[in-house]
Amino acid sequence: MSKQPAPKLTPMMERYQQVKAENPGSILLFRMGDFYELFHEDAKTAAKLLGLTLTSRDKGSENPVPMAGFPYHSLEGYLQKLIQAGLRAAICEQVEDPKQAKGLVKREVTQVVTPGTLTDDALLDPRQSNFLACLFPTKTRIGLAWLELSTGRFLTTDVEPTALLDEIARIGPAELLLPERKPDEPLGESLKELRGLVLTERPAWCFSREESLRLLLDHFGVQSLDGFDVDADSVGVVAAGALLEYVQDTQKTTLGHIARLEPYRRGTHLIIDESTRRSLELTRTLRDGSRDGSLLDVLDETVTPMGARLFAERLSNPLTDLKSIVARHDAVEELVGNGSLVRSVRELLEPIYDLHRLTARVATRRASPKDLGCLARTLAALPKLKAKLTGHEAALLKRLEGRLDLCADIRADIEEILVDDPPLLTTDGGMIRTGFHAELDELHNLARGGKEWIAKYQAQEAERTQIPNLKIGFNKVFGYYLEVTKSHADKVPENYHRKQTLKNQERYITPELKEHEDKVLRAEESATALEQELFHALRERVAKQIVRLQTTAEVLAEADVLMTLATLAIAGGYCRPDMTTDPLLDIRDGRHPVLDKLQPSGVFVPNDVRLGGESKETTTDTQNSSADTEPQTSDQFGRVQIITGPNMAGKSTYIRQAALLTILAQMGSFVPARSARIGIADRIFARVGASDELGKGQSTFMVEMTETARILNSATKHSLVILDEIGRGTSTYDGISLAWSVTEYLHDCLGSRTMFATHYHELTELTQTLKHAANWNVAVREVDDGIVFLHKILPGPANKSYGIHVARLAGVPAAVVERSRVILETLEADHLDDSGRPKVPPRMTRKEKNRQLSLFHDQHPLLDELRDLKIDELTPLEALEELNRMRQKLQT
């Protein structure tokens, strides 16, 4: 049976197929007149996702083509739905005037929109950055680059493979580019687990080191990257070049707003891993992953979109450099002392538009007349703002005032040319100010004069024909026409030529009407074309000043953040933290920053945090002294805190509070406390709560141990570690053993500041053997066989667990509660020694530790003797004697 030939395609469908082949993996939106049309599988996908009617082209043929579409003016709404579904869309526009086209109208893809390359305000959250990231993995390092296309901010770094997921979680990109990889490659599989991340694979040739460097140098117009303080040999440069290639390929326009490449160095920022960010709910809540209720949501009182994005970035990336932190605190302190200034600056900032994203649209030649109007109004607010920033003592405020470019020439250029309220589209006309261009004014007068004639002509004809409801209308098909109801059809003169018949009306034209129509339309078309020419020239001039506008946008964002921090401090009674490089935490009457704002005033119970801080005294551990104990430097409060108390009493809130106040202090904020002395942390670890990750096949306990392992392998003496209930995912005795050992390791080997909230009261005995450990407990008052939580942290261990009391409060039946009391008494009798203390193994002496460690060292002399021992030549009795001799030698 012969194969049927493929049906011959129309020229339009041939062009569609060609464009579709050039944009694989994208939903193609093909402009046809006033509609965007989709065909084949794209039509089926869009109909289901966007709720469009699925129809077909060439219905009567043997091979009808599935088709769907929507009006061009609805593009933003439908595009948003496609992007939110993780899809990419190629927008194919008519790039020539249909009236001037010879044959098929020319169509080209003008932009490929992906989750990471959004620039339109309608598709973006104004208070949230939308990053596109790219990674380039090698055996030892991973190159990472990220760009916010809507503002032009472009950064790069090299990271260790173990730190990649933490960095991706910190950046929170909408889309991540990576080289094509083999199925089930571990790196790709682990990235898939990150919420809301779209992975886009790129061909290997996109990651050529030579091509990446060439692309970057050509784009920035430089001979080397030294001026950006970027090492050209780093793997991060390869990632940056591959990212830039992708953006050039999808945007198909100039990218002048990407003006520099910034190096990111992890050592200058507080490292917060993905698990810790989640546990502390910095930017997303544990409950549903939304922004609502997070620390960012509660504290962000910025008044501009630029400030909101910078505030989120600083909260996610606190500093570790003491000088930089203090500079921010100096600025906030000066502002706190002048509340009226803060209020007036915020009032000036509030009406300001998103200068960063406006500037990006200008640079990409996508700014509308309304955008330039918003830009001018923003620049008009700057002189008053600059005056408010003048005359301050803080170095940071002085720097802001010095960097604030008023851009008066740009503002004057826009205001001279554009009307006060320009239209959204250039095709709408009416955007150029009267008096700016004589020829344009003349064309407008001609168009207005023609319209005045048409209005008089309508009144004249109504009177002449005695048709009182005669009117003149206009549409794009017929132009101007006279409309007469059928009830007056007998009065229509002979010189009226019927053009269209409707249900109740007839439409006519006359030679006089067509003559004046030509004058009006020619004048309007010429005026619109000339307005577009003048607008494009203005936009080009503004685009040459992108760097100046970006600098001003940065100043406005930072001013907004500083005013917000001052506002928080004034309203919440925050104190300036005293920052130090010593590993300590001394906070008096500290409050949880989220609960402090959400709860009614005076409800939250403040607490002290006293952790670490070496004193000059040296002491000896008298509680557990031994012959080999050496004097050690005592710390002021204990660098390891063991916090006991019942559920619901506030242990988790207390330890989270300590971490959050440290983060706030290091981002440059004041903190909710009476006073605070905070040692700068290099890393913060939070092991607070866990849940089964069934998708990974990991139980609660496995997740808990994985996170604990990360802490034990990464923390330093400058880290802050907060732990909640380590070991509760396994049996009681396993849990106690692990918790005990983990605490000893943190104390002895890492020396990290540690807060350990636990139900294991056995761990309170650790203070007998750990020199730098201290017990704290959550105060509970017993009332009539019940308990009241006081939410106050006090020195010393809790004397009871109160678990049975909590069960009763939760509504557990009385019979179960009473039976549990009996069982508890029996278990405690077996578990406690004669003095009422838990039966736990004694702590090894230093000599025992050394022996234990040295036994497995290759150079231990007993190992050499064992290697040299000729077992085959020994009698059984001689072997026993030799074994006894070695045992005695080991014990000496």
Give a written overview of the molecule.
Helix content is 42%, strand content 18%. It is built from 29 helices and 29 strands. Helix 24 (732-750) links the parallel strand 26 and strand 27.
In the predicted model, the low-confidence regions spanning at least 5 consecutive residues are 615-634, 692-697, 851-858
Give the integer mean of the pLDDT values: 84
Largest sheet: 7 strands, mixed
Count of helix runs:
29
What quaternary form is this? single chain
Gross morphology is elongated
Structural class estimated from helices and strands:
alpha/beta
Strands, total number: 29
Termini gap = 97 Å
Structural key phrases:
alpha/beta; elongated; 42% helix; 892 residues
